[in-house]
Structure formats: structure tokens, C-alpha cells
Amino acid sequence: MKRLVLLIFSILTITGISAQTVDADAILNKTSQTYEEWGGAFVKFTAQIRMEMNGSTESFEGTIRMQDNKFVLTAPDMTTWFDGTTQWTYMERNEEVNIITPSNDDLRILNPMILLQEYKKDFNVAYIGESTTNHAKIASDLVFTPQKKSDIEKIEVQIEKNTSLPAKLVVRMRNQVLSVVINEIKADTPPVTFFTFPKASFPNVEIIDLR
User: Fold this and answer.
1) Fold for domain 19-40+47-61+104-184?
2) Is residue 180 within 8 Å of 6, Cβ to Cβ?
3) Distance of alpha carbon 41 from alpha carbon 185, whole angstroms
4) How many CA atoms lie within 13 A of 6 on its CB side?
5) Model pTM?
6) DSSP alpha helices (H): ranges in 61-190?
């Protein structure tokens, strides 16, 4: 479940700005441009997973370091590495590492910058108004809807107007809602090798290759 971590943005107080007067693509182009200029990013976040069938919730904090489409995601009892092709997930409780080739939906949930940079391939996006972030900043609210059948029903994104950076995400799926609040985001450029599972540092783990 925790692999579905990073992308959750709840819509807050909507103002009366007309959706037709704001270009969603222009907002996202600024976000993408900022990320490209940085060359990578470090993010601290708080996430919540709510199961729709029984109303249960799970909350946790984590970090993600990103560069292009590569990332390392750290959450309680779990670390995930993705080098652009292969994904390794280390489960501390079980002392095992699962290796997969993730789907596009998997990657967009784990790494929001992939969604914000490549959304035109699979999503329609619309501006739906303004809101206030958890840090009392004015934000533009966007909604992404899949162009084809997908595990994701829609994604709601909150982007701070003064920085053009994402502040919050809500990923709505059939049976669960994934919410992520970004507490800190800054430029970061780790070496390329950082995004590959460091096998030498985990000599006793069980490797399970699911590719």
C-alpha cells in the first residue's frame, strides 16, 4: 500500500475566479521550467491513505529525492529506488527487496514531477480555482483526468502561485484516496548512482525479482 505514496492534494477554499480565464498549461509549464532549472529536488511530505470501503486511514511522513524521472522515496519501514527503468523496494520489517518494472500509474503516484512534466500524454488538465495551502499561501488548483481507462480516477493538484511549485496532491482511485502535503521542497542534485539500490549496503536481505 505504501508504494502508492507521494501525490495527494486536497482542494481547499475555492474562490470566484473563472476557470476559463486561466491557462492550466501555462501554470504547469512554469512548474516544469523551475524543476528543470534546479536539475533535481528534495521534498519532505506528509501523506495519508484512506480506504473508501471501511473509512480506515493511515498517515506517515517521508522524503523523496528526484532527478528527471529518477527518485529515491523514504517512508517508515520502506525505501524505494527508481533509476529510470527498474524499481527496488526495501521492506525493513521483512528484510526483503522487491524488484519490479513499474507502470506509468505507479510512477506518477510515487513521483509527482513525472505527472507534472508528462501529463499531456495521458491526462486532460483543467484549472478549477484558487485556494490557500497549509502554509497560508495562495495556490492555483488543477484537476487531472485520465484520457483512457486507468487505476486513477482523477488527481487534484495545488500549486503555489508565487513559486510555481506543487504544495499538495490528492490522487483519487476506485477504492482509496491518497493525499500528500508537501512540507518542504528545494533544489537537490544527487549523483546518478544514488538512484540505484545499493546492494552492498544490504548484504543479508532477500532479493525477490518480480519483473
Assistant:
1) outer membrane lipoprotein receptor (LolB), chain A (2.50.20)
2) yes
3) 7
4) 31
5) 0.79
6) 104-110, 112-118
The DSSP code for 97 is: E
Tell me, what DSSP letter sits at residue 205? P
**pLDDT, tens digit (0-9, with 9 covering 90-100), for 15-50:** 223 334 468 889 988 888 888 889 889 999 999 999
Place of cell 496532491: 169
Q: To the nearest 10°, the Cα dihedral for 69, 75, 77, 80?
A: 0
pLDDT at position 183 over 70: yes
Each domain of the chain, given as residue ranges in start order, spans 19-40+47-61+104-184
Beginning with the edge strand found earlier in the chain, give each strand of the sheet holding 70-75 in spatial order.
123-132, 138-146, 152-160, 166-173, 176-187, 41-51, 57-67, 70-75, 78-82, 87-91, 96-100, 206-209
